[in-house]
Design brief:
Length: about 600
């Protein structure tokens, strides 16, 4: 969602802010702006649209100065417009604020401020924060106290960056429920909502926790709590390379990340499956065998693609671990009254580790006494820090909004967790595990094999480009896979599509099948092959065109399907990770063929940090 960058140092702030914001473009945004201290005043330039529009506006009106804050906005309160863009200022423009998150009580605060004569320029919730900081600053004369008092008034989530005309040597940042980091430089320091924004300047960062305030000058960073007590923080060293967050010759981040999957899967898998041990090494899962044996119910909770990876986990854990599993989207889970106690395990799946609903689900489960296991990609993220047990998916930075390599590594995590549970509770023998491990080691090469068919998938995408409605159908694990395929097509190609359990079609949706409707049939599950093929025949009889994804050797599918993509044969548990790769490529080529910017799909954000 929104991006924040702050700079204080001896260089020109403006290019550093813009450059940092560019690195955050992948998060999704609709407007951008910066505020820079110059000549004893704060100069704010902001605009609706992309960063190029901001750069155009700045041409000839460059903001010179070495302290500033920048923001890319993803609209929540008020449409994308120049005036609703951040930074927002107080009435005298002596204070500028950027904000990620949602101020839930902003209307009450706004009315209160208006009653005191404050005039609001925008429709945003953020402007309230600017005026509150101003109000308290005028009362107490201390900017830090003013920010702390403002934090005390705000309900909701925030990552705040604040600069003030009276303090040209100070940058203040604070967070609650929205990510914020502080980068340590030499004679310069940084604030950002995500690492790529500042990675070219520093690898040493502080990860702010909720209710913490960073008091940042050129030569010093102090992290304090709301009582102004200093908080000792460890420096987190970023180990991944700047190149990992660059396109590296690919046309889009999404394509690069699709092709990175063999490596991402290897990195996630290999350290956990040492050849010399007959066990899965999950260092950050502290759940003992005894504790695991007491678990009588598992919830897998996540959003979007991460939820679809979680669905695979449900099928697998139930089948090999024999513990009942409910998989549910976090936005629903958090607002109903799920039955949880100390014998419940909640598995959260999240690439970013910051998704607002997933974080809320975690906190709710912890309150109810459940054990929480996070499957997370971003190191040091909120879920990574707050979960009781942790399994990192080592996918590396995923920049494209459409998740690809993160999904594959999340599915790997589900394999590891399901096998771990099954072995620890005596449902899987060592011999069975060794067989599975052998097969798991072949998966990265098998993904490579599928990627070699990219041209063929492009041909199919070109061929079916005019489709307006697409069905994805499958049974069992294939049904879970079909949901991810359908989501990918929707989010980047903007083509309406529906995933359906193949056997459920005739209970209604088959009425929508007409001449030429594209049905993508996932038939990678050996034991359900015939059943799904029967359902494919039913839609074919009603005029559908069928593109099937099947395991090598199942050539009889060609009698039913118009087109087929084959994936290498594997154990039934591991077909989802393979069957999904053609879906990613198909969606990618549909989207590029239709002329869409796949890395920045409309209305979407990479990390959904608001409800
Ligand atoms: C995937 O392509 C989507 N962009 C989206 O569904 C995403 O998976 C979801 O928002 C969850 O994000 P998370 O993994 O960071 O929690």
């Amino acid at each position: 969602m929104c991006g924040i960058v702050g700079y204080i140092g001896n260089k020109e702030a403006s290019p550093i802010l813009i450059d940092g914001l560019k690195k955050l473009e992948y998060r999704g945004y609709d407007s951008a702006g910066i505020a820079v201290y110059h000549n004893e005043s704060l100069q704010i330039t902001k605009t609706k649209g992309r960063l190029v529009a901001l750069e155009e506006k700045l041409q000839g009106n460059e903001l010179t100065g070495s302290v500033g804050i920048g923001h890319t906005r993803w609209a929540t309160h008020g449409a994308p417009s120049d005036v609703n863009s951040h930074p927002h200022g107080n009435s005298t423009q002596t204070i500028a604020v950027v904000h990620n998150g949602i101020i839930e009580n902003y209307l009450t605060l706004k009315e209160e401020l208006q009653a005191d004569g404050v005039v609001f320029l925008s429709e945003t919730d953020t402007e309230v924060a600017a005026h509150l900081v101003d109000l308290y600053y005028n009362q107490c004369g201390d900017l830090i106290d003013a920010v702390i008092k403002t934090m005390g008034r705000i309900e909701g989530s925030y990552a705040l960056g604040v600069v003030c005309r009276d303090h040209p040597d100070l940058l203040v940042a604070a967070r609650k429920d929205s990510p914020l980091i502080v980068g340590l430089g030499k004679g310069e320091n940084f604030v950002a909502s995500d690492i790529p924004a500042i990675l070219q300047y520093t690898r040493d960062i502080y990860l702010l926790d909720d209710h913490e305030i960073a008091v940042v000058t050129r030569d010093d960073i102090k992290i304090i709590n709301r009582n102004k007590e200093e908080v000792k923080k460890e420096i987190y060293k970023v180990t991944w390379d700047v190149a990992a967050a660059e396109k590296g010759g690919y046309e889009h981040f999404m394509l690069k990340e699709i092709f990175e999957q063999p490596k991402a899967v290897r990195d996630t898998l290999l350290p956990r499956l040492p050849q010399n041990k007959e066990e899965i090494v999950l260092d950050d899962i502290k759940l003992s065998q005894k504790e695991l044996e007491k678990i009588n119910k598992i919830y897998i909770v996540a959003c979007g693609t991460a939820y679809y990876a979680g669905l695979i986990g449900k099928y697998l854990i139930e089948r090999v671990g024999r513990i009942p599993v409910v998989a549910e989207v976090a936005s629903e889970f958090r607002y109903r009254d799920p039955i949880m106690d100390e014998n419940t395990l909640l598995i959260l799946v999240s690439q970013s580790g910051e998704t607002a609903d997933t974080v809320a689900a975690m906190r709710r489960a912890k309150k109810a006494g459940a054990r929480v296991l996070g499957v997370v990609n971003v190191v040091g993220s909120t879920i990574a820090r707050e979960a009781d047990d942790l399994l990192y998916t080592w996918a590396g930075p995923e920049i494209a909004v459409a998740s690809t390599k993160a999904y594959s590594t999340q599915v790997v995590a589900m394999y590891l967790i399901a096998c771990h549970i099954a072995m620890e509770t005596g449902k899987m023998s060592t011999a069975e595990f060794i067989e599975l491990r052998k097969e798991l080691h072949t998966i990265p090469d098998k993904i490579d094999e599928i990627l070699k068919q990219a041209d063929k998938l492009k041909e199919y995408a070109d061929h079916y480009m005019s489709s307006k409605n697409v069905f994805y159908i499958g049974r069992g694990l294939d049904f879970a896979v079909s949901m991810e395929g359908s989501l990918k097509l929707k989010e980047i190609a903007y083509v309406h599509s529906e995933p359906y359990a193949a056997g459920e079609l005739k209970h209604g949706p088959i009425a929508l099948i007409e001449d030429g409707t594209l049905v993508i049939g996932i038939v990678s599950q050996e034991e359900l092959f015939d059943k799904t093929v029967s359902n494919l025949r039913e839609v074919k009889a009603r005029g559908a065109k069928i593109l099937a994804i099947a395991q090598e050797g199942h050539t009889e599918i060609e009698k039913t399907a118009d087109d087929v993509i084959y994936v290498p044969r594997t154990h039934w548990m591991f077909t989802p990770i393979l069957a999904n790769i053609p879906q990613q490529l198909f969606a990618y080529y549909m989207a590029t063929g239709l002329g869409h910017d796949v890395d920045k799909p409309r209305n979407l954000a990479k990390s959904v940090t608001v409800e």
